[in-house]
Amino acid sequence: MKTMSSTTKIVMLLPLLLVPIVLNNAFAEEFNIAIVKGAAFPENIKHYDPAYVRVNPGATVVWTNDDKSVHTVTSGSPGAKDSGRLFDSGFIRTGATFSHTFDEEGIFDYHCWIHPWVIGRVAVSSGAGSIGKIAVTEGDRFRVELIALPPIIEAGKPTSFVLSFLNPVTRDTERNVVYDFAVMKGDQIIVDRKQVNAWTGITTEEVVLEREHSGTLTVQLSNIHFATEPPDPTKDKISFTIDVAPAPEPKPKGEPLPVMTQQTLGKKFFIEMVFAPTVIEPDKSQTFALSFFNAETGVVERNLLYDFTIVKDGQVLVNRESRSAPSGTAVEDFTFNEDQTGSVTVKVSNVRVFPDPGRTAEEAEFSVNVVPEFPLGIMLIATSAIAAMVLFGRFKKLPHL
Q1: Where in the chain is the domain with CATH 2.60.40.420?
Q2: Are 196 and 180 in contact (CB under 8 A)?
């Protein structure tokens, strides 16, 4: 009886080995998004169609430019420091396409670098382990989708609730929607935010639940209406049930971060600035965290743009324009050098609601001190002096010969 050679066996098995690859490609998800005609104009009803998609990991999204203007598909928010880091199409001319495959779970915002009001979002979540809830409001006017990130909500840790408002029939994103947002445990109201504007139809609510808030909670959206309509608390609302895991045992706390608060010159906003590390030193990365609040209500202001500047003795060390704070908070990083020690001014200016292109008087200044590093020469002298004192003390204790 003849036996098959190794080469013959490999040739016969090759089609079977290729089957999983063929099936994988055959069933890979692909979603198409159109850059619609007229997207270059801010007043256009739609810019991306759809502006929001939810896909499984491994799915490919394809954008096609149906507009007469050139556009880009750039990851991140307009003006953000990580803008374009994940993907950037470059110029997409009329009729051309760009595609990107999303392998990891998460929420991925993107925009057009040329037209920053053209904004979209891709939510990547697998069925297992992700909180993705969909329901139609009681008034049947909106289809609301909620995704929680991270998927496991844990007390004491920040959670992002990503909300999308869609037409229940066409599934198109509904823009300029206003709503009230609440998180409740039984009858106890834990979070209560009024008249939040989701002007793109997609928004994020940042929440940190306390240790005592673990268990089953309710996320309620009420008074949902278009900004052009009068509010009606009895009209459209919807509720989602979520489970919050208990917080781990607290770790010993370090020193609290310094918080600086200033009201802008135009009196419309309060700006809080927190910086870490608490001692600002040259050649070390410094983080400035900014939070923006309405001066009258104290509520976090969302969808803001601002300019960020650091000045020392009249010299501009850094100037970043049209920075984005979509959730009302933003982070700026900077590293001072040895020639920039002493008192410096951190200036947050031209604060305005996106996409307002004009300049405003809403600005605030914060004074911080950059501490010089201890000079190496002085350290060597001090070390030598201490060593000499120790040796001298020991020499005195030696017996005299």
Answers
A1: 26-126
A2: yes
Beta bridge partners of 220: 182, 239
Kind of pairing between the strands at 315-325 and 202-208: unpaired
pTM, two decimal places: 0.43
Q: How many CB atoms lie within 10 A of CB 94?
A: 14
Task: Give me the architecture of the 259-376 domain, per CATH.
Answer: Sandwich (2.60)
Max avg pLDDT among 8-22, 209-223, 364-378: 209-223
Q: State the Cα–Cα distance between residues 265 and 325, nearest whole angstrom.
A: 19
- As a whole number of angstroms, the distance between CA 172 and CA 329 comes to 28
**Nearest CA to 281 among 331, 318, 339, 336?**
336
| pLDDT for residue 67 is more than 90 | yes
- Burial (0-12, 13-18, 19+ Cβ within 10 Å), 47: buried
Q: What is d(CA 270, CA 291) in angstroms, rounded to the nearest whole number? A: 8
CB 168 within 8 A of CB 149: no
- Distance, in Å, from the CA atom of 93 to the CA atom of 105, rounded to the nearest integer, reads 30
Right CATH number for 26-126 from 3.40.630.20, 3.20.20.70, 2.60.40.420, 3.40.50.1820?
Answer: 2.60.40.420
* CATH class of this structure's domain 127-248: mainly beta
Distance CA(269)–CA(299), nearest Å, equals 10
- For residue 199, give both structure tokens: 């002007």
Q: Which of 295, 362, 363, 292 is closest to 328 using CA atoms? A: 292
Using alpha carbons, select from 85, 58, 80, 140 the residue that is nearest to residue 326: 80
Q: Are 61 and 49 in contact (CB under 8 A)?
A: no
> One-letter amino acid identity for 320?
R
CA dist 192 and 371 (Å) reads 41
pLDDT tens by residue, 204-234: 888 988 888 889 999 999 999 999 888 776 6
